[in-house]
Design a protein that fits this description.
4 domains; 4-stranded mixed β-sheet; Immunoglobulin-like; 13 strands; alpha+beta; 5-stranded antiparallel β-sheet
Length: about 425
């Protein structure tokens, strides 16, 4: 129990360091917050040491840390973890656990009084929630929303082609369409950091409208994105993250326009995610940030070079007519486990500076590259650990002798 809370405190401390420093709070603010939080926690530890129940102490410590996150955000305007305002459910969970284990220590009269207070507070809270619900839950004709119309147009007219669906529409498209997206609304799970840089750069552009379209288009082409949705200032879309939304007008062809929302095409030689380029055309180095596109410019020119052959990609098989000094740039995030073979011979598959895969088949003429994905050492270790833990749990639950030994080694006094 002590170790669990210690690890929790360390995790919150690391998160707090990152958040405070990221938002410019500085070291003095960081030290003050950390000192105050740990001081109160140590007081709690000292106060609860006389409690006979380890479960009660655990519930108190759990409630302290999980309540500190949202209450600190709303009441004291600081956060221990990113987006501390989203931990209300964890707060309620911790309070319920705490109440369930300490209720037996409260006298009956005190319990009735506490129940009355909770009931009154709950009545007031219910009134607030119902008022909010009435403003939020209104009849909507889904097919007439701009988000639905955008997703359906993409699904019908650009099936299977990667698109940059902007703003809250990307969440809706995940429900109604199987079209791959550059963003998709789940950046924390993206394995490629440069993919996040690309999305952010496309949204924000450059500090002025001049040059914003050029930089954004280069990022879109690098990731083989065939179209982009752009909501205008009057769009019914909620977030409006695209800065200078008019910057693509007259630069990219318009595929569809409705109300103040537009789908622009990003012209490219082919719809394939596999692109044949020269070895010297691969991105020279990782961009420092989204505006540092100089190392990508030669790569961008090569993607549009009509002299270079096109490639097809289907069912993990790439086909192209290539020369020995040419490579295949795959607009797919690199991950350990990917390998490539030509006629049964393994060929180099590497990661380029923007996190995409590059295959060097060394072919002279028609070439067929087969892609394979296998388990890595890390995956095998995880499978082994998962299996051992499962076997251990079954033994503890099913073998009386082992169960008794575990209970004796880890006594929990109720």
């Amino acid at each position: 129990m002590v170790l669990a809370n210690a690890f929790g405190a360390i995790g919150l401390a690391i998160g707090g360091v990152a958040v405070v420093l990221a938002f410019g709070g500085g070291l003095p603010v960081l030290l003050a917050i950390g000192f105050a939080a740990l001081s109160v926690f140590l007081l709690l530890v000292g106060f609860t040491r006389r409690l006979g129940s380890e479960i009660e102490r655990f519930a108190i410590y759990l409630a302290y840390w999980l309540c500190l996150i949202p209450l600190g955000f709303f009441q004291f305007h600081f956060t221990l973890v990113p987006q501390g305002n989203r931990y209300q459910l964890e707060l309620e969970l911790a309070v319920c656990v705490l109440f369930s284990v300490v209720a037996g220590r409260i006298p009956r009269r005190g319990l009735w009084a506490l129940s009355a207070v909770v009931l009154l507070a709950g009545t007031y809270q219910t009134k607030i929630i119902r008022r909010f619900a009435r403003s939020l839950i209104v009849p909507v004709e889904m097919t007439q929303t701009i988000q639905y119309k955008t997703c359906m147009w993409l699904d019908k007219n650009l099936p299977g082609q990667r698109t940059m669906v902007s703003c809250d529409t990307e969440f809706i498209c995940n429900i109604f369409s199987n079209n791959p997206q550059l963003s998709g609304g789940h950046e924390p799970s993206a394995p490629n950091w440069m993919q996040k840089v690309a999305v952010y750069s496309i949204y924000t552009g450059t500090p002025t409208a001049a040059g914003s379209a050029e930089n954004s288009i280069l990022w879109l082409k690098a990731f083989a994105t065939k179209a982009m949705t752009v909501p205008g200032p009057k769009s019914r879309e909620f977030y409006h993250p695209v800065q200078f939304p008019n910057r693509f007008e007259g630069v990219l062809p318009v595929l569809w326009h409705d109300e103040d929302d537009t789908i622009f095409a990003v012209p490219q030689k082919s719809t394939s995610l596999a692109r044949v380029v020269s070895k010297s055309d691969i991105v020279a180095r990782a961009p420092i940030h989204g505006l540092d596109v100089e190392p990508m410019k030669q790569f961008g020119l090569a993607l549009g070079d009509p002299a270079l052959p096109t490639a097809t990609l289907a069912n993990n098989v790439i086909r192209a007519n290539m020369q020995p000094d040419q490579v295949i740039s795959l607009a797919i995030n690199h991950a350990p486990g990917w390998t490539a073979t030509v006629a049964g011979r393994e060929v180099p598959l590497t990661k380029d500076p923007i996190g995409l895969m590059v295959v060097a088949p060394g072919c002279n003429g028609p070439c067929e590259v087969n892609l394979h994905y296998g388990l890595t050492t890390e995956a095998w270790i995880c499978r082994l650990l998962s299996g051992l833990i499962t076997i251990g749990m079954l033994l503890v639950a099913g073998v009386p002798g082992i169960s008794a030994a575990v209970r004796k080694a880890l006594p929990l006094r109720p």
